[in-house]
Amino acid sequence: MAAENAAEHGGQTAGEYIVHHLTHWRNKELVGPFDLSVINIDSTIFTILLGVIGCWLLWKAARKATSGVPGRFQAAVEILVEMVDSQAKGIVHNANSRKLVSPLALTVFVWIFLLNAMDLLPVDFLPWIWGLVYGAAGHDPHHAYLRVVPTADLSITMGLSLGVLVTCLIYNVKIKGVGGWVHELFTAPFGNHPLLYPFNFLMQVIEFVAKTVSHGMRLFGNMYAGELIFLLIALMGGAWSISATGIGLAIGHIIAGSAWAIFHILIITLQAFVFMMLTLVYIGQAHDAH
């Protein structure tokens, strides 16, 4: 009986439970010049909402900043700003560019940290609330899909990395000029010779594509794996029963969930930092001439 309960969670098998939590909220009735039904509404909403919250927190810190003894919130933001600014100075040596790049890097770090931090919420909490709302609207609550970790959605992480790519292209043109950048596309890395132009251009394109794909995939892969582990831990709690095995699973659920959540705080912070650092590196490379 315990084994049977272990395979079920809220009337679902373990596989159905995981698939349900990995399915995005989409609206098949959305129409337009493009197929809008493929838009992951949950990821879009949480990404925009947390972006607004992040900007509001930074604005609030700047608005209440004092020259005297800072409060804990102001001190924390100042430490974060100084850390990002020091990293930007070490990578992007153009002081004029840093006026935009440093705030951009700070925004990227705070935004992605908040997106990653959604993974610390209990996996069933917001989907359960959404199921109640969905059911109250006359729909089947068992078909109320909601994924709350935007960085575990490849479309979000690739969108962020594409934004970094566009920024890099803009700085390539701004720093080197259109002619200088086009010249670099066809003369680096193998040299300035007509026979080498196609190979140089191909290598440049491959470099841009590889950096963009790896930038988004790295964040997605780590957060998706973390989400899966939380789902597996949740299954342990859902499989408990009045038996030695069931009680052991319940205790294991609490211990494993707490340990992974504490460790995951490091992961979500590290992944935000890595994404920010790669953003600075790629923009810094746009300032370098080959």
Question: Helix and strand layout, with pairings?
Answer:
Elements: H1 2-6, E1 8-9, E2 12-13, H2 14-21, H3 41-63, H4 72-91, H5 95-117, H6 125-136, H7 154-187, H8 197-238, H9 244-286
Antiparallel strand pairs: 1-2
Helix pairs in contact: 2-8, 3-5, 4-5, 5-9, 7-8, 7-9, 8-9
Task: Describe the structure in your own words.
A two-stranded antiparallel sheet has the order 1-2. The chain has helices at 2-6, 14-21, 41-63, 72-91, 95-117, 125-136, 154-187, 197-238, 244-286, and strands at residues 8-9, 12-13. It is built from nine helices and two strands; from the N terminus they run αββαααααααα. Helix 7 runs antiparallel to helix 8. The longest helix is centred in the C-terminal third of the chain and has 43 residues, at 244-286. It has one domain.
Structural features:
about 70% helix, mainly alpha, about 290 residues, two-stranded antiparallel ribbon
Explain briefly what this protein structure is.
This protein is mainly alpha-helical and about 290 residues long.
Distance between the termini: 68 Å
Shape: globular
**Share of residues in strands:** under 5%
Helicity range of the residues?
Answer: over 70%
- Quick check: average pLDDT? 89
Order of helices and strands: HEEHHHHHHHH
Instruction: State Rg.
Output: 23 Å
Strand order of the largest sheet: 1-2
Largest β sheet strand count, sense and barrel closure: 2 strands, antiparallel
Q: Figure out the total of helices.
A: 9
